[in-house]
């Protein structure tokens, strides 16, 4: 989602408005000048004020009392115009509010922000006071007294000052740990709710199939099943298990529907030129699964077009499929400024009014982050361009969240119960980091022994740098790799040198990205080599940073790259350090896979770290020194080069025939990751070699730690339908379980071969399970050499 922090927007105060109603509630049709008195405040005994009434009745009653302007106010938000409502610095100004949102508002965008990047964000106490003041004004000073929904970003922890910040979602996915994921996002839910937020614009379940794309870090990787499983746990962490709102919960937002993760040329918001089959099998899959299993309350449409139709104007996607086929009842929110882009960029609307009508008719319920196009809906209804029933339906969906959240009964936040980062949160993030670090190579040098390792040199552009990635604020603290090593060994045993730079210093939020002067970097490299002479072991921290992989939200703020090469002279640094002959360990940070062949060839061990969160240095030290096993597995394949894209593992049988003079396979395959423990995975056994579709069948393997260290292993289940009416991938992930075993311990892992595991999308675009032979593969990665196979025969139903 785009953050244009310094964009000056047209002042549209005279055009604000919003509205909506849930699919299950009758659609009221009152417009300005009909029905109830539209100038007086309703009495205290109005149905919508009565908590004893059903939510449907309350919605219907409230909509029947609303003017068009009040309805449209509920389907819009306020962000940039928050600055117009400031006084005495950043205090709320009620006089300005009467001009900016006289009819109320649907959402207030990011109340944690003051006016710009995170260095101007509010403290938790300031945010609570601000939120309560806004709600008091809305309840007491607007005619209908409708509170606002407050939404925040929470991609990898609440993006607010002093909140807990863990690894980017790509690292969360690398943990392959459902329970850990839920614990992390429940932490963000408690902190968000305690500060007054009701909605978070998370999680991202885009399936990332092009590593050139700068938003890979925000995703859960390349596999739809993994994205669905981990994404569901994020939603449950935010919302809980049931439809009831409990204290410390917030409404989640799945994004971005759909096709966002394989943009043309790897360019953010580029067209998704994919077939309906690929759309349904790959990009729709996590959304469909989580809608069915998680009761998610919001879904965000994507910026891109899908086969010529922008998602914000795609009625087939948002109405027919999402609501019709999947039965989704929640709200669809726009991505930031995406409604106006229907006119300004996609050119499927002639102006902002046409864009607004096209979006809301196609199923978009609220325009974020500001009131731009949707205020024109007042005029559209008045001139007959838009049926008021469409507006009422959208209004009802937004109001439902306000009623379900209990905002009409208590819109305020208790300032004595604010939650910020705690020592318990630190421990959780530290553990999550260790569970997400992926060991790609180890020639036996790891783990290092603290007692005998001697002096360690930590070299490289990411050795002493804050590494959070995008959609971050200022956490309470950040532990760099250097600091983490010093904490483990003592400062006197750690040597530091920058060595080289990825880019000149900058910010994820700001536009300029400045390349490093090569001659200056060579001086840094020489200094690093000199510094490392006194070391017994060298650790080099390289990769990308927040500027080389980020959301490209405009032509002046880019983050996609046509290469996977590490930026600057990092490979020269690696070459020079390798010449020292000392043990060399590589740490690769950044938001997406990179070409690290040179690093892996010249080092003794390599970790893929991505971003690990505020405890990065401690997590790295825990793993390097063997206090923790490297628990991560690759959630996305690492290509050999940019020319090897696509590199995802679940390709079709006619793909990957080969390349002249090169290997066609990925350098490192999905699901791969080494452990300090040694593992024996028994051949899988079936509870029955064949069965009918309606019979229960399982596949079981026994995992044994045959090493002398405790560790974790991710047992993975893959399936291939040998013969089907349409082509199927060579293998598909259908199950995984993370197990933790001490030396000599073993555990049986069992997966169900149920209808969902064996189904596929048939020729008529419906999900079917058909008789035939299936290859069942169980192992430790998607690589053929890491899998053991058994054949299962599915018979037809009994006659």
Automatic annotation (TrEMBL):
SUPFAM superfamilies tied to this protein: (Trans)glycosidases, Beta-D-glucan exohydrolase, C-terminal domain
GO molecular function, one term: beta-glucosidase activity
SMART domains xrefs: Fn3_like
Span of domain Fibronectin type III-like: 713-782
Enzyme Commission numbers on file: 3.2.1.21
Keyword annotations of the record: Glycosidase, Hydrolase
The family this protein is said to belong to: Belongs to the glycosyl hydrolase 3 family.
Protein name per UniProt: Beta-glucosidase
Provenance organism: Neolewinella antarctica
């Amino acid at each position: 989602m785009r953050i244009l922090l310094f964009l000056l927007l047209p002042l549209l105060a005279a055009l604000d408005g919003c509205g909506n109603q849930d699919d299950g509630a009758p659609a009221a049709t009152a417009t300005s000048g009909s029905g109830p008195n539209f100038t007086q405040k309703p009495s205290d005994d109005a149905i919508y004020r009565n908590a004893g009434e059903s939510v449907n009745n309350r919605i219907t009653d409230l909509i029947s009392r609303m003017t068009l302007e009040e309805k449209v106010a509920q389907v819009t938000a306020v962000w940039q115009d928050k600055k117009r409502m400031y006084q005495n610095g950043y205090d709320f100004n009620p006089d300005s509010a009467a001009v900016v949102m006289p009819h109320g508002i649907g959402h207030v965008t990011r109340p944690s922000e003051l006016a710009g990047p995170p260095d101007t964000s509010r403290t938790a106490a300031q945010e609570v006071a601000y939120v309560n003041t806004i709600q008091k004004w809305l309840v007491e000073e607007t005619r209908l007294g409708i509170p606002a929904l407050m939404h925040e970003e929470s991609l990898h922890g609440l993006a607010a000052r002093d909140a807990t910040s863990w690894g980017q979602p790509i690292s969360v996915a690398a943990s392959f740990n459902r329970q850990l994921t839920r614990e992390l996002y429940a932490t963000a839910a408690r902190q968000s709710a305690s500060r007054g937020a009701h909605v978070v614009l998370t999680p991202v379940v885009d399936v990332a199939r092009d590593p050139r794309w700068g938003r890979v870090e925000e995703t859960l990787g390349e596999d739809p099943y993994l994205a669905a499983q981990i994404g569901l746990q994020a939603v449950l962490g935010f919302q809980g298990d049931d439809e009831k709102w409990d204290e410390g919960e917030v409404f989640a937002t799945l994004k971005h529907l759909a096709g966002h993760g394989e943009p043309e040329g790897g360019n953010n918001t580029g067209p998704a030129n994919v077939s309906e089959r690929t759309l349904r099998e790959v990009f729709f899959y996590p959304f469909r699964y989580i809608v069915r299993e998680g009761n998610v309350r919001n879904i965000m449409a994507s910026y891109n077009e899908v086969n010529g139709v922008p998602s914000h104007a795609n009625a087939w996607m948002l109405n027919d499929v999402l609501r019709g086929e999947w039965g989704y009842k929640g709200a669809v929110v726009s991505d930031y400024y995406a409604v106006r882009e229907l006119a300004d960029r996609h050119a499927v609307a002639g102006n902002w009014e046409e864009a607004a009508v096209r979006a809301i008719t196609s199923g978009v319920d609220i325009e974020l982050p500001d009131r731009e196009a949707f205020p024109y809906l007042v005029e559209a209804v008045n001139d007959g361009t838009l049926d008021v029933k469409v507006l009422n339906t959208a209004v009802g969906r937004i109001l439902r969240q306000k009623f379900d959240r209990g905002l009409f009964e208590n819109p305020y936040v208790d300032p004595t119960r604010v939650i910020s980062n705690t020592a318990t949160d630190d421990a959780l993030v530290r553990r999550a980091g260790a569970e997400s670090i992926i060991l790609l190579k180890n020639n036996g040098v790891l783990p290092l022994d603290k007692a005998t390792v001697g002096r360690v040199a930590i070299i490289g552009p990411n050795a002493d740098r804050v590494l959070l990635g995008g959609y971050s604020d200022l956490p309470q603290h950040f532990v760099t790799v250097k600091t983490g090593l010093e904490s483990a060994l003592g400062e006197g045993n750690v040597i530091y040198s920058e060595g080289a730079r990825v880019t000149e210093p900058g910010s994820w939020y700001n536009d300029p990205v400045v390349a490093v002067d090569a001659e200056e970097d060579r001086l840094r490299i020489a200094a690093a080599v000199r510094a490392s002479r006194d070391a017994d072991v060298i650790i080099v921290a390289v990769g990308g940073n927040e500027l080389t992989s980020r959301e490209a939200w405009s032509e002046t703020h880019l983050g996609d790259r046509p290469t996977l090469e590490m930026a600057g002279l990092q490979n020269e640094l690696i070459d020079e350090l390798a010449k020292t002959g000392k043990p060399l360990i590589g740490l690769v940070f950044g938001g997406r896979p990179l070409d690290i062949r040179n690093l892996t060839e010249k080092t003794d061990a390599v970790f893929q770290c991505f971003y690990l969160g505020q405890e990065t240095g401690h997590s790295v030290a825990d793993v390097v020194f063997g206090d923790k096993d490297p628990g991560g597995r690759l959630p996305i394949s690492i290509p050999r080069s940019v020319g090897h894209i696509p590199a995802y593992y679940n390709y079709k049988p006619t793909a990957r025939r080969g390349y002249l003079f090169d290997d066609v396979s990925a350098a490192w395959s999905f699901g791969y990751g080494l452990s300090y423990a040694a593992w024996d995975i028994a051949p899988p056994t079936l509870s029955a070699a064949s069965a009918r579709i309606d019979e229960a069948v399982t596949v079981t393997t026994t995992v044994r730690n045959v090493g002398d260290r405790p560790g974790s292993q991710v047992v993975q289940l893959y399936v291939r339908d040998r013969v089907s009416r349409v082509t199927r991938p060579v293998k598909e992930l259908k199950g995984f379980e993370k197990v933790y075993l001490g030396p000599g311990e073993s555990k049986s892992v069992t997966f169900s071969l149920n209808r969902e595991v064996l189904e596929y999308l048939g020729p008529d675009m419906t999900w079917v399970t058909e008789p035939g032979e299936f290859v069942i593969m169980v192992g430790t990665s998607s690589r053929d050499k890491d899998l053991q196979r058994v054949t299962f025969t599915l018979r037809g139903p009994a006659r």
